[in-house]
Amino acid sequence: MANKNLSLNRFTEYPTYLQSVCKKVLSKVEAYKSSHPQKKIFMRAFGDTSQPLPTTVVRALVDAANRLGAPHTYTGYEDPTGNPRLRQAICTNYYQKKKSIDLDPEEVFISDGAQSASVNIQELFAPDSKVALQNPTYPAFVEGTLLADRQIINLPCHEENDFMPKPPEEKVDLIYLCFPNNPTGAVATSEHLQAFVDYARSCQAVIIFDTVYSPFIKTPNIPQSIYEIEGAKECAIEIGSFSKWASFTGLRVGWCVIPEALTINNTVAGELNELWRIRHAIKFWGTANVAQHGAIAALSPAGQQECQGIVNYYLQNARLLRDALETIGLKCFGGIDSPFIWLKASQSLSSWQFFEQMLQLTGIVGVPGCVFGNCGEGYLRLGALGHREEIEAAIDNFCSSNYQKSYLLSNKRVSGSYKTSLSK
Ligand code: PLP
Questions:
Q1: Is the distance from the beta carbon of residue 134 to the nearest atom of ligand 1 less than 6 Å?
Q2: Is residue 241 in contact with ligand 1, taking CB distance under 6 Å?
Q3: In what order do the strands lie in the sheet with 236-241?
Q4: Ligand 1: which of 244, 371, 372 to mutate, most ligand atoms within 8 Å of CB?
Q5: pLDDT tens-place string over residues 178-200
Q6: Is 120's C-beta closer than 6 angstroms to any atom of ligand 1?
Q7: Could you report the per-residue pLDDT of 215-243, keeping only the tens digit for each?
Q8: Residue 254, ligand 1, Cβ within 6 A
Q9: What distance in angstroms lies between residue 255's CA and the mean position of ligand 1's atoms?
Q10: Helix, strand, or coil (residue 206)
Q11: Bond from prior residue into 180 cis (ω within 30 degrees of 0)
Q12: What is the mean pLDDT of the chain?
């Protein structure tokens, strides 16, 4: 029998329910395509990657697969918390060498990407935990919290506070923070993060820090890990991924750090770490061993250099797109230390109206900001993780029509059908 407290209505009634939003975006694009077959469409909506795996990674994957295919080198089940060499490489090559953060490999758990870890981690906490979420935020944090039937406390992020929330005014138990942020592209300074760490330590809350996009940070002195902040190991879990900077969206490797020092209320040091170890062994038993060998290679000096090339490529895409949009006077946020541009509607259009306007006038498809929470109303998220040619074609198309430019800024109506669709 289904859990009587868990009803699908909880999701379908929620405005950010991702399944229905994706369907709605795609069906609007399909409808537009069929009524305008000659028009080009530029999908800048979803956050999937386009660049191939680094050659160092491919070589490691092939070698690992060959070892599995030979009788004397075949291996089966491995450590459910992840390949020890990978956990060590994350400690040494990702945290120590790049950020001077000391972690023990026992504090690192390998997952099949960041998403499952960031949502499943809620299992460690009491059923009545209150969960604070940035608004707008990455939808999985919202839906994972709804799935767990927990109360959401909103931390509004808008232009006036530079999309940087303040710690909650009330007592919460969990706080999801994501920097560089998806969708706004905002990054947090040490001072911003210190305020959250101080809050969490003062009221026994745990921060779940999503660093999926931290390799995109180029601005000096912007923390790339919550553990750069004093006291964070006592109150924060960090979740990372190889998805975006190493092209692992299909291979699926991420990690979760649960420091030994992390405690809440009645737990002792190391207890949450040990509970997560048990949870891994019971419900997961690790991500594919071949993929983990690829991740080890991504963290080698050659792999990191190639991955840096991927990150720079996407950041250049973002810069080109942002420059083009700003040239005609549209207000953009993000896109500097992040592959996402948070584009403000030029008039008081709703997110869905702005989505339609961009689609119809420029062929560019973004994600309406309201999908990420009501504070995203009036914005559109554009992703820059695509091929350069597509980005350049979108920019050319966008810039080549003076009529469309002036239209975007003046909010005139083009035709009856456009008016109709906007008013829906
Ligand atoms: N966290 C954020 C903020 C994301 O944007 C994404 C993917 O788009 C994920 C997590 C999921 O990453 P992964 O592919 O590692 O599961």
A1: no
A2: yes
A3: 108-111, 254-257, 236-241, 206-210, 174-178, 130-135, 151-156
A4: 244
A5: 999 999 999 999 999 999 999 99
A6: no
A7: 999 999 999 999 999 999 999 999 999 99
A8: yes
A9: 11
A10: strand
A11: yes
A12: 91
